[in-house]
């Protein structure tokens, strides 16, 4: 009782008075990255640059490969690479690591955010301390970082999947989508773009259903089964999510539809290797995470050296990947996804 | 009140003093060997990291002293955060939301309290249940969405510090609460009653202590403080989410046990617990600064937790064996030295 009273009093004392409601102040998001000073494209990357990768979580194979790409790049420009991170991917768990990096005074922080806002304050403190901040894979609010390395544009991801579909079933047939959750922003955007392009360029391809496996293996498996039972003439399934693609492949590989119904989408080579080998799936796509990390490291070095300041139109060279241009809102697009087939899948391990 | 027992020998050096000692050693070693550890900015980061743990550890210490436990605290933080986010979206004033969140925390605590004291259920089982229930409700309220557009002066206050000292603003209200809880536990009849309940509930009842009512209000207070923790968490990370503070209950319980509070009740002090919170935080911070991986840090936290349960229990067993004719099992009726020896503020 006493404690509750003390609490209440403390709260009222410490909270600002006067009634703060939503919309009182102009939204401060969307002001874009801070870009100060002029870019000097000819600046040299200084030796000994400290570059730290902070993935969503450690021990995640995807980020293991991405950070490996970063390490490769850092070795090329004679910097010092390190990788730190939390053991679970929660919204706030990255903050204390960012604080530590601020304290250590590292030159470049390359991070993939578990939450677009939770690490903002910490990242801005790091930038005030002189660090260049690059986000990759998952962005923060643009006001909290210098540049964002986008693995692929939504357009690139969607058209690669449509291309893969057409290559296998031709220009007519029935297709269904097996998505993640019904409110997953990126999935919905990709599906919308794919439907638009199909309607415009391939009017004879009919989208008969979109189902949601919620990124759960079992549910995705059952939804696949349901699709095939409901739509007897189905020619193809596109699953733009790694969990869904693997689960659908597992169902197809054990059913009479194997080889009859085309399956494609976004997946990782290690999940899909067996299904490429047994002929269930002929091709699927994903960006190459090693290239993603590699580009993030070079972008960080370019920022630190002053080659770019994160403004639209700044250009820099990212080692073996060649030249890149900073787009609107400090976004740098890696390129179209990599398509994996039996020809090249053995070159990838993630 | 139970009469002060006659002491046959000096009490063994108390665990909470030992924790304070280890904390000092860690602070000295880290300051001299880890570059940047002792800077005011780093101390600020460290304090911010342990703020919510310290906050919740205050009432939880009292709960554990009575022989109960509350594992639902982190889920209360998450549910409060989710509710805070949706109330903010609905356009209520933030001042009102903060009060509502603390009240909500208190209500959630009352649910625990009612199940434990009204129905006589074991608090371990009850709060494992509400741990899942509250977290589930948090996802019902906010799903996997995040609400982030809290006003910058509030979120700035939550990560800001007092002038150039590096000491976070939030230390002040925390210190006020800490003083309140220390006084209650160590300087009032209520506090002595809590130790008595933990040592021997039946004796406490016979001594005229309102065991059930006191325990009920302890759960309410714990919930309310966890609600406040949810508010602070949300502002600090400028992000209201249903999964906020996931797993935090383990760190809080680890801090309470490492601080010398017996999991069986009846023993421990807030000084030991606050020292343990700082010890865990400093170790983590210093090891992070020398790039020890987070997996190793988790292993370390686990080891410290096991040590803090095993060592006092072994010591108690040895004491009991030495005592001629020591009949009663040590954990249900331990030598009640702690309450008396650390009783004064």
Mean pLDDT of chain A: 89
Question: What is the string of SSEs of chain B from the N terminus onward?
Answer: HHHHHEHHHHHEHHHH
The largest contact between protein chains, plus residue counts on each side, is:
A-B, 58 and 65 residues
Would you tell me the structural class of the helices and strands of chain B? mainly alpha
> Termini separation of chain A (Å)?
55 Å
Helix content of chain A: 25-40%
Please count the beta strands of chain A (DSSP E, at least 2 residues each). Answer: 14
Count of alpha/pi helices of chain A: 10
Oligomeric state, counting identical vs distinct chains: heterodimer
Q: Tell me the fraction of residues in β-strands of chain B, as a range.
A: under 5%
Report the helical percentage of chain B: 55-70%
Structural class estimated from helices and strands of chain A: alpha/beta
Parts with pLDDT < 50 across at least 5 consecutive residues of chain A? 12-17, 26-32
The major beta sheet of chain B can be summarized as: 2 strands, antiparallel
Spell the H/E element sequence of chain A.
Answer: HEHEHEHEEHEHEHEHEHEHEEEE
Region (Disordered) (chain B): 320-345
Keywords (chain B): Cell inner membrane, Cell membrane, Membrane, Transmembrane, Transmembrane helix, Transport
Subcellular location (chain B): Cell membrane
Membrane topology (chain B): Multi-pass membrane protein
